[in-house]
Design brief:
The structure holds 2 protein chains of 2 kinds.
Chain A (H helix, E strand, L loop, with lengths): L2 E3 L5 E3 L31 H4 L4 H10 L1 H17 L15 H18 L9 H31 L6 H5 L3 E5 L4 H14 L3 E5 L2 E6 L6 H18 L6 E9 L3 E3 L7 E12 L10 H7 L5 E14 L9 E11 L4 E3 L2 E22 L5 E8 L6 E5 L2 E9 L2 E3 L5 E3 L8 E8 L2 E10 L2 E3 L7 E21 L2 H20 L3 E8 L2 E8 L3 H12 L8 E2 H10 L1 H6 L2
Antiparallel strand pairs in A: 1-2, 3-23, 3-24, 4-5, 5-22, 6-21, 7-8, 8-9, 9-10, 11-12, 12-13, 12-21, 14-15, 15-18, 16-17, 18-19, 19-20, 22-23
Helix pairs in contact in A: 2-5, 3-5, 5-8, 8-10
Chain B lengths: L1 H26 L7 H33 L7 H23 L2 H18 L16 H31 L7 H28 L4 E6 L5 E6 L5 E2 L4 E2 L11 E2 L6 H25 L3 H5 L8 H34 L8 H23 L3 H26 L9
Parallel strand pairs in B: 3-5
Antiparallel strand pairs in B: 1-2, 1-4
Helix pairs in contact in B: 1-2, 1-4, 2-3, 3-4, 3-5, 4-5, 4-6, 5-9, 5-11, 6-7, 9-10, 9-11, 10-11
Bound molecules: protoporphyrin IX containing FE.
Protoporphyrin IX containing FE sits at the interface of chains A and B.
Chain lengths: ~550, ~400
């Protein structure tokens, strides 16, 4: 690699704009008066090499223009995704194609055609995010290394050309230079400047660490993105649903049979007038008492399986803990978390019927059917018996007009009973559903009279284990540290130099010039040094001149 | 306690209003006026603002005590809190830079925000289960603080634009600046129209059919220019205004109606203003800002973003994710409100990069500050009312 040797003796990498040590501009003949200090004139790969394909890709991704373009495209794409609800927010039992067309007409159809119904999971959205990630890595590497080098190598004594071309600059003549320097040094030290001296020249510097802020925050972002990607690695992430009825004990899905849960009770409460703090009355009145949810809660017992898994045998369980799962208060154990997310109230549980003589209304006993676990036959004694020939938990008539069931959930139970009695030993058949009875073989003497329904609540829980969370947390924390580091501190430098019997003062900050100027004003107060002139402002004024004046007329 | 709380908010509102006038006095440019006198006005202005802020803080604390939870749990409370944070951010920035003109632009925005907030149901509401979380309150307050600091950047950007945009001939810049003015005036229009119909106790009840083919009822508090899907005025409202058109079921006609009314109110106000002023609103404001230091204004606008961006990130993204993980089982769900927080964040990230690396200072930066604020307001207003997902504690 070529190197450029400055007249001060320092050897700079090829591509350096001004000497890392003394600041003498290496590429003269520039028109601009002020130096571009952004990366200390350091040699960045992206600016220096542009021959091979790798160079070109590197230059592409390290360009802030490209970075901003990627951010803006992602921003617009994200906004498009909020025009209509994403597929995950539409009702689960409809076809998305129909839903979008139905609800939003031609616009919805188009939205669906373009795949915007699943925008955030689409390959091109992922690609955008990935490009931002690549860009983050490359742009940071491109800058941070040369910048680090330049700041480390910087000398105290600077070339006059460097000083003159700083944004804040002044020259003064003072009687006693040594005394002035002493005063200024003291004040600078008070303001926590780190001071270096060389040949009677001063470099005062503070907040250099804030220059690393952007790179630290970019690293945080990259870690966050990596964490988000790890979600797709098997084993890192468990997301299961557990519907569990009151009284039931079920294996917790996603735990490979290690844990079991018993639902003791599901509780749903609403805000009711008279029971709450009086200040809520007006609000409760407006929407109606008993309509606003107050609490969703499942009282559970967590069990762990002990002993080996034996196929077909009941698992042996050891109680671990009791807990009340509420919204915002998940049950956490062994990296698993169980959340209250859904519920169904009053699911039919047990149904009772009386075997009854239709004319005399005399009852011969009651049959209680567990709707999840019906028995094939119920003996009522004295020669009375009921057989369950068929059971349809979620009954409907199918296309051929035959009774059938939609699911295994007893939403609408129907039964075919055979009633065996001493006087009808062959039995009578009766089809019983809610609110209807059919006697397929003519008029029966007996009937199954509805005698009550016991219901119970079902709780919908989400089972979650996420090993990526801590990575995301670390990424987020590093991002915040980096942003604060770069935003709430500035990197300020003040040079004081003796040039031809004059004192030259130049200063630079990466941001907040207002603060730097105030600080300099206080530091040089009473020393006889001239307040530096803001050459950028002067330039602007000269350029705009009468124009700005005209605008206010 | 709840009564006291409302009174304190009311007092704060009045004080901010008075403070605005004091700051107006501080920048009025009469010949021969002493600098000292100007400083007096500015001092009065900031004192009044601080007392107003303390009063609003009193509102916040008393309401917290009355409700038993931090009052940031419905649209009224959240928006009022946003207004309060805006004033707080202004006070802090004022003490750094000491420029009165910032008060003259920030306080009216805060006033508009608070007035807008009070158009929503103001009762103290009990919390639904998802909102019963300390993390939610931490998230909402920090996010509001971040947005408020970013809003100061908008105020400074607006000052910059009013000052530099050449009003001597119409251009794209004058047009868009007027659009900004018009939006602010429309907010005022919304407040005025809502208040008028509220005072008149206007009510019109419709039966209508929603998108799931369910019949239901809706009560309009403004004359219905657009009616709900297959809407019919019920008997006791038979004498009420008949809508010109009825909307399809997917459009929330009541909200659209409010938007139309606000627009009408805003337009009327704007046209009246133009007739009185005989020039663009921004042109009329220009003399107020002719003495501002442009570079300083630019610096303030940027400083506000530099301070606000990390606070916003913490509140609207990081704390939001923590809460979402606990309440909704996942830290991110692509809910519209979340997405718009992400969009806001991406936008300000782009802003910072353009400024730092592309040297977008001055006017360009000021326009970006205005756009950023527009995005924040879009999230606060439109996403709550129109797109409404999980976060829609807005109600109707
Ligand atoms: C969402 C993504 C990003 C965020 C949130 C972000 C955030 C930041 C922040 C907060 C700063 C400090 C700005 C300041 O101090 O004013 C910064 C600086 C910077 N960012 Fe990013 N950034 C992102 C993406 C990118 C990308 C894709 C690039 C690629 C080109 C990039 C390149 C830079 C550069 C070059 C700097 C300036 C460093 C300096 O001049 O010292 N950033 N970024």
């Amino acid at each position: 690699m070529e190197h450029v040797k400055c007249e001060c003796g320092h050897v700079n990498p090829h591509g350096t704009a001004f000497c890392e040590s003394c600041g003498k501009p290496l590429e003269e003949n520039t028109e601009k008066k002020l130096l571009d200090m952004r990366y200390e004139g350091s040699a960045r790969r992206s600016q220096t090499y542009n021959k091979t394909i790798v160079d070109k890709i590197w230059a592409f991704f390290s360009s802030v223009k490209v970075g901003v373009a990627l951010i803006v495209i992602t921003l617009i794409a994200s906004a498009i995704g909020t025009i209509f609800p994403q597929e995950m927010y539409i009702p689960p039992n409809v076809s998305p194609a129909e839903y979008y067309a139905d609800q939003y007409g031609w616009a919805g159809k188009l939205y669906y055609k373009l795949g915007f119904n699943n925008l955030y999971g689409s390959w091109w959205y992922m690609l955008l995010i990935a490009s931002i990630g690549v860009s983050l890595v490359i742009c940071s590497l491109d800058r941070v290394i040369p910048l680090y080098r330049a700041l480390k190598k910087q000398g105290v004594t600077r070339h006059p050309n460097f000083l003159r071309r700083q944004r804040l600059f002044s020259t003064s003549r003072v009687a006693d230079v040594d005394d002035v320097f002493k005063q200024v040094k003291e004040k600078l030290a008070q303001r926590r400047y780190h001071i270096r001296e060389e040949n009677g020249n001063i470099l005062a510097e503070k907040g250099r660490f804030s220059r690393w802020g952007p790179y630290v925050n970019h690293i945080g972002l990259i870690i966050f993105l990596i964490g988000a990607m790890l979600r797709f690695v098997p084993g890192m992430y468990v997301d299961e649903v557990l519907w569990i009825r009151e009284g039931e004990t079920k294996e917790i899905p996603g735990t490979h049979g290690k844990y079991f849960l018993k639902n003791e009770k599901f509780i749903f409460e609403t805000y009711e007038k008279g029971k709450e703090n009086e200040v809520f009355n007006a609000a409760i009145d407006r929407v109606g008492s008993g309509t606003v949810a107050k609490n969703y809660q499942t009282n559970v017992v967590l069990y762990k399986r002990v002993g080996p898994v034996v196929a077909g045998a009941e698992p042996k369980l050891k109680k671990i803990k009791e807990y009340k799962i509420r919204v915002n208060e998940p049950l956490k154990y062994d990296h698993y978390a169980l959340y209250q997310v859904d519920f169904k109230q009053n699911e039919p549980y047990k149904m009772a019927f009386q075997l009854m003589d239709k004319t005399s209304k005399k009852s011969f006993g009651t049959v209680v059917i567990d709707l999840h676990n019906p028995k094939p036959s119920y003996n009522l004694g004295n020669g009375y018996r009921v057989e369950l020939l068929s059971y349809f938990p979620d009954f409907y008539f199918d296309e051929d007009g035959n009774p059938s069931t939609k699911s295994k959930v007893p939403n609408n139970p129907a039964f075919v009973f055979k009633m065996l009695t001493p006087d009808k030993p062959k039995g009578e058949v009766s089809f019983v559903a809610i609110q209807q009875t059919i006697e397929p073989f003519g008029n029966n003497k007996y009937k199954m009279a509805f005698a009550g329904l016991e219901t119970r609540n079902v709780s919908g829980l989400t089972v979650r284990r996420d090993f990526t969370l801590w990575i995301l947390g670390v990424g987020g924390a590093i991002f915040m540290i980096g942003v604060v580091q770069g935003m709430y501190w500035n990197h300020r430098r003040i040079w004081l130099q003796r040039v031809n019997g004059e004192v030259w003062l130049a200063a630079h900050t990466n941001k907040n010039w207002f603060g730097l100027k105030n600080e300099i004003r206080r530091v040089i107060e009473g020393t006889g040094l001239a307040m530096p002139i803001d050459q950028a402002e002067e330039e602007k004024k000269a350029a705009q001149g009468g124009q700005a004046h005209g605008a206010t007329k | 306690m709840a009564q006291l709380s409302s009174t304190l908010l009311y007092i704060a509102f009045i004080l901010y209003l008075i403070g605005t006038f004091f700051f107006g006095g501080a920048i009025r440019d009469k010949k021969g006026k002493e600098k000292k006198e100007k400083d007096r006005w500015a001092q009065l202005g900031i004192m009044t603002t601080i007392i107003g802020f303390v009063s609003q803080l009193g509102y916040f604390i008393t309401r917290w005590i009355a409700a038993g939870h931090a009052p940031v749990s419905n649209l009224f409370e959240f928006t009022t809190f946003f207004g309060m944070m805006l004033v707080a951010a202004f006070i802090v920035i004022y003490f750094i830079y000491k420029i009165s003109i910032l008060g003259l632009f920030t306080l009216p925005v805060a006033l508009l925000v608070i007035a807008y907030a009070s158009m929503f149901p103001r009762e103290i509401t009990p919390l639904i289960p998802a909102l019963q979380s300390d993390w939610l309150h931490i998230h909402v307050t920090t996010a509001a603080a971040g947005e408020a600091i970013l809003a100061v950047s908008f105020a400074a950007g607006l000052i910059y634009l009013v000052r530099v945009v050449d009003q001597s001939k119409p251009s794209k810049r004058t047009f868009w600046l007027e659009v900004v003015m018009f939006c602010l005036i429309t907010t005022l229009g919304f407040v005025l129209v809502s208040t008028s119909f509220n005072l008149a106790d206007y009510e019109a009840k419709f039966t209508w059919v929603d998108k799931n083919e369910q019949k239901s009822e809706v009560v309009y508090n403004m004359p219905a220019l657009v009616g709900p899907h297959e809407g019919k005025l019920v008997k006791e409202s038979a004498d009420r205004f008949e809508p010109f058109v009825y909307m399809p079921a997917i459009i929330n006609a009541k909200k659209l109606n409010t938007v139309i009314w606000s627009f009408i109110g805003g337009t009327v106000l704007y046209v009246l203003l133009r007739l009185v002023l005989r020039k663009r609103v921004a042109a009329a404001l220009q003399p107020l800002v002719k003495n501002v230091n442009l570079d300083l204004t630019d610096e303030i606008s940027y400083r506000a973003v530099a301070i606000g961006f990390p606070v916003f990130t913490l509140g609207a993204l990081i704390f939001a994710m923590i809460w979402a993980q606990i309440a909704w089982t996942r830290f991110w769900g692509w809910d519209p409100k979340e997405v718009w927080a992400l969009i806001t964040w991406l936008f300000y990230a782009a802003f910072l990069h353009l400024r730092l690396s592309k040297g977008w200072h001055g006017e360009k930066s000021a326009w970006l500050a205005v756009i950023g604020f527009a995005i924040i307001m879009f999230n606060l207003v439109a996403v709550n009312l129109v797109i409404a997902g999980l976060h829609s504690y807005a109600g109707t």
